[in-house]
Amino acid sequence: MSGVRSSRIRSLKCRECGREYELEPLHVCDFCFGPLEVTYNYEEITRSLTKEKIRNGPKSLWRYKELLPIETEDPLDLGTGFTPLIRSTNLAKELGLKELYLKNDTVNPTFSFKDRVVSVALTKTREFGYTTVACASTGNLGNSVAAHAAKAGFESYIFIPADLERGKILTSAIYGPNLIGVEGSYDDVNRLCSEIANEYDWAFVNINIRPYYAEGSKTLAFETAEQLGWVAPDHVVIPVASGSLLTKIHKGFEELHQIRFIPDSKTRISGAQATGCAPVATAFANHTFTIRPVKPNTIAKSIAIGNPADGYYALKAVTETGGFVESVTDEELVEGIKLLARTEGIFSETAGGVTIGVLKKLVESGKIASDEVIVAYITGIGLKTVEAVENALEGLQVIKPSVADFNDKILRRNPSLGQ
Amino acid sequence: MSGVRSSRIRSLKCRECGREYELEPLHVCDFCFGPLEVTYNYEEITRSLTKEKIRNGPKSLWRYKELLPIETEDPLDLGTGFTPLIRSTNLAKELGLKELYLKNDTVNPTFSFKDRVVSVALTKTREFGYTTVACASTGNLGNSVAAHAAKAGFESYIFIPADLERGKILTSAIYGPNLIGVEGSYDDVNRLCSEIANEYDWAFVNINIRPYYAEGSKTLAFETAEQLGWVAPDHVVIPVASGSLLTKIHKGFEELHQIRFIPDSKTRISGAQATGCAPVATAFANHTFTIRPVKPNTIAKSIAIGNPADGYYALKAVTETGGFVESVTDEELVEGIKLLARTEGIFSETAGGVTIGVLKKLVESGKIASDEVIVAYITGIGLKTVEAVENALEGLQVIKPSVADFNDKILRRNPSLGQ
């Protein structure tokens, strides 16, 4: 299996030693074991790509195809991306912010931002000619790989921690993949998948396809800038699991600057973690780029990666741009979910609760200024992690089907409302 | 409270006696008790509205604002609508169809098509000056009203059957409404709400705001036609609860023809019900327009309306266009959910399972021809009704984190895959 060399897409390049490789299913440098990243010929893209062309493109992440490592004219499209950027009214007021936006990535085909990376990964997988795809997942990725594999006709193997939230297990199972629960943490699952990837010639979306896969996250930056009228925000808050999402959103803004679509890329990038799994936040607090792996202990399972593959690069992006990495407790993240729902009508999973909790903390500590243009990334749906907010059900009041009972049990408690 | 008379929006008109009313919060004719419907000045709309204008509009249902009964320039927008129309590849093949599309309305802000009607209803509610909104709901509507009320700052009362799926209760509760579980069926809830609506001056989205509310469903027809390149499909399959959705999709295609956006509106309209609550399908089978109310007994609770308010008009639309109303059992609807997921990567709630089940049945009985351009409407997310497909969890296989265990427990059972 061999990649096609395109003049728009240049190479795979080692982030450490700079050695370049052909566009093949590789993810680490043969020489220094550094991670490989896709590079582009930006001069050529600048010549051929216009904002007009994007505006007339599909209403999905494929409107930015020329900035993605894809050759085919017919990418795998379940309708992922170009999700709403919602101007926050109530939450902004509650936090004392002037201009806050929420990027609502819950409304993707499998209800998380993972559809972005998987759309790109499985399109590339098809280009490479594989027939079997696989992934290690904390849930959302598995959902997305299973759904896209169903559509594309791939055999799929989804590896997840056996103790995952039922909602996230079912939402993989429903698409009919080979679904394998591994007794252990996500890091155990990941290690096992690396070993299996060495034995079988499959496309592991977050192992040998990872350099292509990760590029899909850039589209969150592209959409944000386009939806703001081709301007980058002042500050973004992004949940950190492996760190890949954060580094790629950073790369996205930089690329838009490079092709002269936005005036500058001075966006400050901040990361959000759960205190029960905060290796990147801990390193940031200790002013070190050395990340010490931890054993996760948080309900925010979708971002509970104790040994984050791109943690170092995430820290670099944060530090270079003047951002922060902060963490919140499980109690604070639950509050974050509820705050977002009752102010903006968006129901997020635990990771979004972390993002909102950290946003609040950064504002309260003065690290985010009230006049910054801020974007918070809500990366997945609350319905997959209902366990976290089940006590909201206590709000249900039961009555008999009569006006008398309604007046008596409900309105009597709140007499100002019977107006 | 009084409506504003617009030259584009003409009146509320009784569907029975034709008497016209000002644009106020009314829903039945004072004289004959017929339902009121919004009418427009199509000549004026034809003069002012262009496809170009729509194409450059927002990426939401508000791109069709000029065909909706709204005056404000600043409608309530959580990003509803303009959802993907997915060309079915695998399901079409499995059913022997040439050109099948799936309108994926699971990716709305609260994950069902109800966000369409609620966006319109609550925008109108704000125009009327109400501060309290309410609804009777089988779940999805309550979710949407609660979320939109949170965003708009309305006090909200959500009335639901107390025995609803937990997923649908939680997804209302999370947005912080007054959430009232009524001991009884949806029809009991609905009756209670009508009584309460008589006592308090609130905006009940599906009672006194209903004529405006219902118009939101037309956008499903508008989007379908636009996404097909301004052509109406030959045949559509739509789940039937109150019947409002079906009649409004029909109206939508007719309006597009009226303003000369599509060459004709010969779309055949077919309805889908669950056998356990199929009053419209039964009337259709019996060649009568008299619908006998039934007591619902099906897991498809979101469409389990035993006494459908618009059932008569739905039947009329079906009959006039040469469509059908068919029903499927709970077992068949569960198969429909699974079939859709494993072929197209879309995870639908029970109503979508009904739609797919009925589509299959209509094809197999020769009522849908294999060369028709068909659109099936998938109106809500599977994550709210996981109970229906919980046995899919049986697909999970658990192993220890070792390659040996993987080879032994998983691959040994399927030796062709270790290639």
How would you summarize this macromolecular structure in one to three sentences?
Chains A, B: Its cofactor is pyridoxal 5'-phosphate. Chain A is built from 15 helices and 14 strands.
Structure description:
The structure is a homodimer of 419-residue chains. By secondary structure, chain A is of the alpha/beta class. Chain A has 2 domains: 9-75 and 114-213, Rossmann fold; 85-111 and 217-390, Rossmann fold. Chain A is built from 15 helices and 14 strands. Chain A has a 6-stranded mixed beta sheet, sandwiched between helices. A 4-stranded parallel beta sheet of chain A has the order 8-7-6-9. In chain A, helix 4 crosses helix 5, helix 9 (218-227) crosses helix 10 (244-258) and helix 13 (330-344) crosses helix 14. The first copy, chain A, is globular and about 75 Å long. Chains A and B meet through helix 5, helix 6, strand 8, helix 7 and helix 13 of A and helix 5, helix 6, strand 8, helix 7 and helix 13 of B. Strand 8 of chain A pairs parallel with strand 14 (396-399) of chain B, so a sheet runs across the interface.
